[in-house]
């Protein structure tokens, strides 16, 4: 088959949608090399590098106006390229499809929808952004021949919030970078621990430091239970970080709170693998990749009850209501004190997370294309 991808996020987004885009392209190139793959991006200037074969074709605007108005090129002009290049399939990897692509070519159109958080929690988004996200998602879902949801939770939201036909949606889970599946050598762990001045024991939380991630609940649980272990938070900064620091200062927890906004990607597996517990009390996720990163890293996971979290965390993780500070504190204490419980959570979690291995994901994606 001749398969095209919207590759803007792959080249310019270092997390989230970018990770998904890069992973999807890399896996298909690796496991199904006989297909012809084409990447469409509005630019390659200062683009991120990732593991794709040299023979892969990359297309970007050539005309002056298209180079100048990159969003216009991506939204309207790619439809012409889909027809010109006679694609069998065009896959919008980040919730968008070019306008009129269904009218300008015979290619089958697929779009991946990651979440509809902007509809579930509108208070976290500006109204103008909500409207743009909604219009793009609605148009893409209605235009696509198939919609890929990254979880059963997202599938349910597509049906309930946008009214997409259940028969049009395929659930294909995503994985995480293979770097988290490798055992970090002791020398590297020591190097990373010294580089960031890490404490000997710690609770870990990874993800953008924003209100929806609810990491303040972990601080409150530590304070409530008088738990003598620090919390390390790794993620991009938002104003919510000031709220965490303020709470820590007011409750004499400032020595127990470590926040890192610019951890090197290569160092993160060592930070995961030296943690005692991974706690992720997020209010809502489309998938929650940090959970499977933690399971691959062989650390026990505490996360949120309901939503997508049981899909990602499996039967081994502990699930707590995100606002139940007492239960969260109790769960942390139990895991820290009970080695037998901890070891079982690690073993069962590692067994469960194998369902997100890259060969299975690549097969599931290709099955959607073949349909």
Describe what is shown at a glance.
The protein has 371 residues and is an alpha/beta fold. Helix content is 45%, strand content 14%.
Question: Explain this structure to me?
Answer:
The chain has two domains: about 1-170, Glycogen Phosphorylase B (Rossmann fold, 3-Layer(aba) Sandwich); about 180-355, Rossmann fold (3-Layer(aba) Sandwich). It has 17 helices and 13 strands. The chain has helices at about 10, 15-30, 65-70, 70-85, 100-105, 115-120, 125-145, 150-160, 185-195, 215-225, 240-250, 270-275, 290-295, 310-315, 325-335, 340-350, 360-370, and strands at about 1-5, 35-40, 55-60, 90, 110-115, 145-150, 170, 205, 230-235, 255-260, 275-280, 300-305, 320. Helix 10 (about 215-225) links the parallel strand 8 and strand 9 (about 230-235). With about 375 residues, the chain is of the alpha/beta class. Helix 2 (about 15-30) crosses helix 17 (about 360-370) and helix 10 packs across helix 15 (about 325-335). The strands form two sheets. The chain has a seven-stranded parallel sheet. A six-stranded parallel sheet has the order 10-9-8-11-12-13, with helices on both faces.
Main β-sheet, in a few words?
7 strands, parallel
SSE succession: EHHEEHHEHEHHEHEHEHEHEHEHEHEHHH
Structural class assignment: alpha/beta
- Report strand order across the widest sheet: 3-2-1-4-5-6-7
Strand fraction: 5-15%
Fraction of helical residues: 40-55%
Shape, per Cα inertia axes? globular
Q: CATH H level of the largest domain: which superfamily?
A: Glycogen Phosphorylase B
Any idea how many domains? 2
Query: Quick check: average pLDDT?
Result: 94
CATH topology of the largest domain: Rossmann fold
């Amino acid at each position: 088959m001749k398969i095209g991808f919207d590759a803007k996020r792959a080249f310019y987004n270092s997390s989230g949608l970018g990770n998904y885009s890069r992973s999807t392209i890399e896996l298909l190139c690796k496991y199904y090399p006989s297909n012809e793959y084409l990447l469409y991006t509005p630019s390659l200037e200062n683009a991120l590098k990732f593991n794709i074969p040299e023979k892969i074709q990359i297309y970007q605007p050539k005309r002056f106006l298209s180079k100048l108005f990159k969003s216009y090129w991506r939204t309207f002009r790619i439809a012409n390229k889909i027809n010109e290049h006679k694609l069998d399939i065009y896959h919008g990897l980040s919730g968008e499809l070019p306008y009129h692509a269904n009218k300008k070519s015979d290619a089958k159109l697929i779009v991946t929808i990651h979440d509809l958080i902007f509809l579930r929690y509108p208070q976290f988004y500006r109204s103008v952004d909500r409207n743009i996200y909604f219009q793009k998602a609605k148009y893409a879902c209605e235009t696509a021949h198939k919609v890929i949801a990254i979880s059963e939770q997202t599938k349910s939201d597509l049906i309930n919030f946008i009214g997409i036909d259940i028969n049009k949606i395929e659930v294909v889970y995503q994985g995480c970078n293979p770097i988290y599946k490798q055992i970090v050598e002791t020398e590297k762990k020591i190097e990373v621990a010294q580089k960031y001045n890490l404490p000997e024991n710690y609770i870990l939380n990874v993800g953008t430091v924003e209100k929806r991630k609810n990491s303040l609940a972990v601080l409150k649980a530590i304070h409530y239970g008088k738990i003598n272990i620090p919390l390390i938070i790794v993620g991009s900064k938002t104003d919510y970080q000031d709220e965490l620091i303020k709470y820590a200062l007011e409750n004499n927890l400032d020595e127990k709170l470590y926040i890192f906004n610019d951890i090197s990607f290569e160092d993160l597996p060592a930070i995961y693998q030296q943690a005692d517990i991974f706690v992720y009390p997020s209010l809502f996720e489309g998938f929650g990749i940090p959970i499977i990163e933690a399971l691959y890293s062989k650390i026990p996971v505490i996360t949120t009850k309901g939503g997508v979290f049981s899909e990602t965390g499996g039967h081994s993780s502990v699930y707590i209501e995100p606002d139940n500070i007492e239960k969260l504190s109790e769960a942390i204490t139990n895991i820290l004190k009970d080695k037998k419980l901890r070891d079982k959570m690690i073993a069962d979690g590692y067994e469960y997370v194998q369902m997100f291995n890259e060969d299975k994901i690549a097969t599931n994606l290709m099955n959607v294309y073949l349909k």
